Every structure is written in structure tokens, then in C-alpha cells.
């Protein structure tokens, strides 16, 4: 979101260049992502019950949370409202409803390169005009530890 497109593009280009990257043409990586709806449901909710309700409502996929992370229900963007409504009507709580750009294939990188990408993502997220950053980087625990130790 910006009120000055030229300023924002210059700031993005500068952030990319500082991390050894470059800006591609508009839409040049869009083919690597697909728009999806995602509904977060607390991990303490019975997964089997959630799965049954979500699939009957039209969900595309349901991912189990690991105790700390929420269960995630994935939908087609057009079905997001319908599926979330059915989950709520079934008496389950919903903690988030969102549209995302989900990567079609995740890419793993050596730790050093992954840390460089994590720094870039961190810099982009700190920009006032940037609302969200999506990536197809498969982030390993080693990369997170290396990134955190760099600060």
C-alpha cells in the first residue's frame, strides 16, 4: 500500500540490491504461487472433527497444528467465507481468516543463502508501504537459528 509508487519501488529496489538481489518484472514470479484461503483453528480442537466439518464445507486441505501452531484449513478463495462460516456454526472457534499467496513448490537453500533471504524478508516487512511478504523458501531450524544469532 503506497501513496507514492516511485518512492516505494525505489525503496524495494534498494532493499533487494543490498541483499544481492534484483527486481523482476511485474508478475514474473506469480506463476510460482496460488491464491488460497486459510482459516486458523486452535490446535486444541479435535482434528478429526475439524477435518470432517471442513471437507464437508468444501475445504481443499486441512493441516494439523503441532500443539503450539493452529490447525490450518485451506480453501479456494471463493469458498473461504462459506467454509469459515460452517466451522463456526459447528461450534468450533476460528482464530484467523486470511487470503494468502501459497507457494506451489518450496525451495530449500544452504543455510548461508537462507539467512540472506530471511534478512531480506525482515527488511521488506519493516517497510511502511509493505503489508505482506510471501516466499517459497523452505525455512529450516538451522537457518532460523543462524538468522537469530546474526542479531
Q: Give the overall shape, derived from the CA principal axes.
A: globular
Order the strands across the largest sheet as they lie in space.
2-3-1-4
What is the highest CATH level, the class of the largest domain? Alpha Beta
The major beta sheet can be summarized as:
4 strands, antiparallel
* Secondary-structure class: alpha+beta
List the helices and strands and how they pair.
Blueprint lengths: L4 H14 L14 E9 L5 H11 L3 E3 L7 E5 L4 H10 L6 E8 L7 H16 L14 H9 L2
Antiparallel strand pairs: 1-3, 1-4, 2-3
Helix pairs in contact: 2-3, 4-5
Nutshell version of this structure?
This protein is an alpha+beta fold. The chain has helices spanning 5-18, 47-57, 80-89, 111-126, 141-149; strands spanning 33-41, 61-63, 71-75, 96-103. It folds into two domains: 5-28 and 105-149, 2-Layer Sandwich (Alpha-Beta Plaits), CATH 3.30.70.980; 32-103, Alpha-Beta Plaits (2-Layer Sandwich), CATH 3.30.70.980.
Describe the structure.
This protein is of the alpha+beta class. It folds into two domains: 5-28 and 105-149, Alpha-Beta Plaits (2-Layer Sandwich), CATH 3.30.70.980; 32-103, YebC, transcriptional regulation domain (Alpha-Beta Plaits, 2-Layer Sandwich), CATH 3.30.70.980. Helix content is 40%, strand content 17%. It has five helices and four strands, in the order αβαββαβαα. It has helices spanning 5-18, 47-57, 80-89, 111-126, 141-149, and strands at 33-41, 61-63, 71-75, 96-103. A four-stranded antiparallel sheet has the order 2-3-1-4, with helices on one face. α2 crosses α3 (80-89) and α4 packs across α5. The longest helix has 16 residues, at 111-126. It is globular. The two termini are 28 Å apart. The model has no long low-confidence stretch (mean pLDDT 91).
Amino acid at each position: 500500500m503506497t501513496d507514492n509508487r516511485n518512492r516505494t519501488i525505489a525503496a524495494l529496489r534498494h532493499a533487494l540490491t543490498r541483499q544481492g538481489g534484483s527486481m523482476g518484472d511485474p508478475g514474473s514470479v506469480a506463476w510460482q504461487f496460488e491464491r488460497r484461503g486459510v482459516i486458523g483453528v486452535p490446535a486444541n480442537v479435535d482434528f478429526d472433527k475439524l477435518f470432517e466439518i471442513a471437507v464437508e464445507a468444501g475445504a481443499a486441505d486441512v493441516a494439523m497444528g503441532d500443539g503450539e501452531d493452529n490447525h490450518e484449513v485451506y480453501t479456494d478463495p471463493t469458498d473461504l467465507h462459506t467454509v469459515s462460516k460452517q466451522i463456526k456454526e459447528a461450534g468450533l472457534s476460528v482464530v484467523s481468516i486470511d487470503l494468502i499467496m501459497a507457494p506451489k513448490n518450496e525451495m530449500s537453500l544452504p543455510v548461508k543463502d537462507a539467512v540472506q533471504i530471511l534478512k531480506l524478508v525482515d527488511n521488506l516487512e519493516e517497510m511502511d508501504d509493505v503489508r505482506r511478504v510471501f516466499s517459497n523458501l523452505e525455512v529450516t531450524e538451522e537457518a532460523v537459528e543462524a538468522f537469530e544469532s546474526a542479531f
